[in-house]
Amino acid sequence: MTIKEFALLAGVSVSTVSKIMNGKDASISARTREHVLKLAKEYNYVPYASAAAPTTRTLTMGVIFQNTEHGKRLVSSILKEAASLGYSLLLRESGDSVDTELKNISAMAAAHTDGVIWEPVSSDSLFLGEKLDRAGIPYVVIGPYKGAFHMDFEKIGDTATGLLVKKRHASIACVAGDDSLAREFFQGYRKRLFDEKLPFRQELVFPDAKSLPVSGILNGLFTAAVFFSQAEALKFYETARNLQYEIPEDLSLLTLRDGSSGGDLPFLSSLAVPFDAFGSQAARLLVARIEKWEHMPEFSPDFPLNTETTLSVPRDLQKKRVISIGSVNMDNYLAFDALPHSGRTVTSSDSATYPGGKCLNQAVGVARLGHHVSVIGRVGGDADSDSIYQAVRDCRIDSSGLLRTPGQKTGQAYIFVQKNGESMISILSGANSQVCPGDITAAERLFDGACCCLIQTEIPMEAVLTAASMAKRYGLMTVLKPSSCGPLPEELLKNIDVAVPNAEELSMICPGKGSIKEKAARLLSHGIKTVIVTLGAGGCWIFGKETACHIEAADFRSVDNTGAADAFISALVSYLLYGFSMEASCRIASCAAGFSITRQGVTPALVDKDTLEQYLEQNSPSLIKEADRKKDR
Fold it and tell me: What does the pLDDT look like over 3-25, one tens digit per residue?
């Protein structure tokens, strides 16, 4: 297309087209300039090279990166935005060489690029911009230089640190490298500490994940860590998890991610660095200078957080943390029309396997009802242990006290369930028999700051005694579920606040004649504050020093009653911790137990907080609004 043809198309004179396309358009109105350039882009009009002066518009944009590997996060967005604005791209790399950088700038001038996006090798090479000025080529400098267009990593570091401060962390480690962007990130971290009046501590600054000591979690050196690099954050995350630390219960972790990729590690809490938006804005800024836009485009990016999965308040501030100690099993179910007995063979057409055991059942129940939970127990060195650990992680339960035992089989429960929900259970102790006092003392840090300890007796009594003693020493409410045991030692009874046996278990721990009330009184005389005797469909009795109260069972159809007691204890403890009275908590626990018998399996049938409270609001609204309920739930 000739200049005359294009001028006719644009409805302007040849002189006007020439002035605009040669950058000598000071006397031309902005409206006319925009109209002519728009048509030139649409019709790909470029003046003939033989007639083109050095200032002729070529609708080409140059990009000079110091390092294209680093700049590749921007290239795609710059290319896309440039194309939308009618420009093609010419890309060059300078590396660390000022000489190469000079050659690149000269090449951009020789190619008559309309403008250049330029990442200088260093501040010392900024003087090369004079060559672009002399050539009359507009340019946008990107990088941490005065007057340059720059991704504000100091602001990102400030924002990331601020999120951890909002979670009430005061000891925050910073892991950043030594390149210019990482140093900016660190300055943002330091600025936020200053603004929040928190002390800056050099011993909390680390160059990489390898230098960040995992022992710092245990000794309280830091309760949170902010990472410049997602790769370094992943390294530390995996190291901490392999050592059985729980994130975020033991440590909150926050990192950055490439906003253009959306974050390829969604299980890590991370702020998006908006490289796409930055590249697009750089292209718009350059075109605004080339085409002399009346208004420069604004750039106010945010840094969205993908998830709070690895964020929490410090452990000592985590509300209502519960410890569950006891047996951990794989539950193996067989369903029958009628239960087997001596001399009779029966067949089953339905079987299932679930992670279970009283320790794990109660932990899952409490977690689903809204509390933080830690488990202490043992699994074997077999494939079943992997299933147990996965189930614990899925429920976000702290497994740092759950130990793997090489050479031992994970505990097994063989559960025979009849059509009406009645069941028989046989237990293979496996690794549960290896739980010892040392396991309890090794997990002592879990007791500090907890509020309740659930203890079951399907592990060696020495470990039970140690757990009850330690729980009492730390001032925790202790709740005992006696199972598979005989009379209990005096040393244990004096450290128990609440005991929850069923009628048969009560007879085993208090052998001989006597009514349920008389046997419960015997336990109370040894120091237990409350004895709750569960009776299945008969409800339960609550016995205190001078009180006795019967609670009716909730009306649910029974499919499998195996986990009713664990569901009852989980809800009892949860609502005591929410501030309900003992009687109200037992009534709620009766409903939770009712839900648990409507499905096969224990852990799959444990009710969650929303479902339970919706049921209560519909069926017992006065109960869920009880006056003595704790205000801060």
Answer: 887 888 889 898 898 888 887 88
